[in-house]
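User: Let's play a game. I give you a shape written as tokens, and you guess the letters that built it. Ready? Here's round one.
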């Protein structure tokens, strides 16, 4: 698998991943009715942030975006988000994307990485982030409306470098 910088020509293959993950409503707080244009504006980071894709055997299996979590006095902390195509799940794509984002953040001088809204019901993602050194530093009870589980908590997760 190769992780490389996103180019606009990738969007026709990235959009279906973003669309399917967002419409499932199980992990992201994005509007399930968002259009491709709205999703592009949300997902594709401007410098100094970065959007990447994971490609294997000519297939685009996942994507990630990373950047500064908050501007100003919080600009020393990074953040990232990850989406994996259904055919890429369970194959290490999410792990590779997260490791890539962590390496990018360290290279760019960030003091740590924070995830602002990890649905506690997204057990695979929570377990992955814990394996990579993140801790749950707080949970907002009932802050995420899961389509089948009802209201579940949203974790804030952090890893210091």
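Assistant: Ready! My guess for every position:
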């Amino acid at each position: 698998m190769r992780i490389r910088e996103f180019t606009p020509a990738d969007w026709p293959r990235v959009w279906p991943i973003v669309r399917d993950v967002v419409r499932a409503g199980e992990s992201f707080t994005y509007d399930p009715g968002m259009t491709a244009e709205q999703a592009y504006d949300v997902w594709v980071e401007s410098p100094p942030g970065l959007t990447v894709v994971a490609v294997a055997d000519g297939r685009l299996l996942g994507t990630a975006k990373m950047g500064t979590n908050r501007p100003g006095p919080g600009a020393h902390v990074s953040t990232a988000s990850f989406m994996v195509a259904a055919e890429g799940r369970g194959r290490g794509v999410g792990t590779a994307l997260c490791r890539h984002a962590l390496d990018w953040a360290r290279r760019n001088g960030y003091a740590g990485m924070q995830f602002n809204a990890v649905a506690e019901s997204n057990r695979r993602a929570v377990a992955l982030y814990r394996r990579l050194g993140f801790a749950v530093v707080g949970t907002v009870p009932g802050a995420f409306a899961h389509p089948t589980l009802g209201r579940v908590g949203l974790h804030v997760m952090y890893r210091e470098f």
